[in-house]
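HUMAN: Quick job: go over this next protein and say how the chain folds.
***
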Amino acid sequence: MSDLGSEELEEEGETDLGEYEGERNEAGERHGHGRARLPNGDTYEGSYEHGKRHGQGIYKFKNGARYTGEYVKNKKHGQGIFIYPDGSRYEGEWVDDLRQGHGVYYYVNNDTYTGEWFAHQRHGQGTYFYAETGSKYVGTWVNGQQEGAAEIIHLNHRYQGKFSNKNPMGPGKYVFDIGCEQHGEYRVTDAEEEEESVITAVPKWKALKITELALWTPTLAEEPPPADVPGQEEAPAAEARGELGEEAQPLADLSDGEADFMRPGEEDADNFREEGEYGREEFRFDNIDQQGNVGFEEDDPRQSDPPD
């Protein structure tokens, strides 16, 4: 599902006057509180300043979308809520008509993203909650994609490590609620050939050892911070017990100590897919299955038709 929502919905400019009822200044400009019906069928009620939407207002699109919040010189700027035609909504900060700052996006499939935005994309620290599985991704986003240090939390285990181009990459560990950890790394061991001879590298999990639980640092630092500072990120314990040689025997639900990581299909590498005027896209990762496979897959963005 696309959290780009319906930014293609452009509001009428100050030159598209339409019908207006409300206050004006001495120059005859719309100034103060007023109500307008625009030539394209949209309506606006709220504050004006020198002929432009400025201050608090409610803009209703003829297709059912609605923005309630702050304007600065005809642009959404400040705090605001945008409800899109498909029923999804964004609540948070806006800058020059773009979602930017901190905000929460509620998707029609009940997924949510809470965190930082930049230029309409998830960017910075944020948490994506997957309603269907109860899992969530907590970590860094870059231009709408999972990138950098992160933690993926499932119902009875979690993965902690780093992501690159939406894939887990490099050292990491699986932490199990039964009280142990499986350390290892995702390595690009081979490649898969897709249509039109496109070669795609496939990261695979290589288990190295099993230890007792240790505190996690998202930066995977080698030296732990001072122990007397509560809430700080800490490195894994110095020398955990339970090493099983060069390659540890995996836990029961990670057979052979290796889990295949599946790349999302049909998704653009630079940003999330936009489909039509009100396109939606959604993605999720799967839990480790009985064979030990770990997969991140993208749902069909049209598995439910938008109400718009």
